[in-house]
Design a protein that fits this description.
Length: 133
C-alpha cells in the first residue's frame, strides 16, 4: 500500500499562519517527542478557527477543549455554520455530522480550508512545513 503525504499547507495569508502557529503553541499542543508535530485534533480545529472566527473563538478555546456550543450560538452564515460543524467533527466533538453536499456548497476559499483541515487531521502538521501560499 502506498502512503500519501502532504507536501504543503494552504494558509489564507501570513497572518492566518502566524495566528495558527501562535495559538497551537499557547495551548501547548505540540509534541516535542514527535519532532514538534502539532496535535492533529487541535491543529485541524485551530487551522479553521484562526481564520474568520478567531476574534470570537479565542474565549471558547483552552488546552482542555473547545466549547463548540458557544461558538455556534451566535448569528452565522450557512457557510460559517458548515465550517464550524466540520471543525467539531474533526475535533471528535459532538454527533452532528456534516454531509458532503454541504461542503460542496462552500465557496472556493472555504472549501480549500475544509480540505486542508481534513489533511491536517489525517497527516498532522509541523511548523517548518510553511506559511501562506
Amino acid at each position: 500500500m502506498k502512503t500519501m503525504t502532504r507536501k504543503t499547507t494552504f494558509f489564507r495569508d501570513e497572518d492566518h499562519h502566524s495566528r495558527f502557529v501562535q495559538a497551537v503553541h499557547q495551548l501547548g499542543k505540540t509534541w516535542p517527542e514527535h519532532g514538534n508535530k502539532f496535535d492533529p485534533e487541535y491543529g485541524a480545529a485551530l487551522y479553521i478557527l484562526t481564520t474568520m472566527f478567531w476574534e470570537s473563538a479565542q474565549t471558547h478555546i483552552s488546552r482542555h477543549g473547545i466549547d463548540f456550543e458557544a461558538l455556534t450560538s451566535g448569528p452565522l452564515s450557512t457557510g460559517e455554520r458548515v465550517l464550524l460543524k466540520w471543525v467539531a467533527n474533526l475535533f471528535n466533538w459532538g454527533n452532528e455530522g456534516v454531509y458532503g453536499a454541504e461542503l460542496m456548497d462552500l465557496d472556493e476559499a472555504n472549501f480549500a480550508l475544509a480540505l486542508t483541515a481534513l489533511q491536517m487531521r489525517r497527516f498532522g502538521y509541523r511548523e517548518e512545513e510553511g506559511g501562506a501560499q
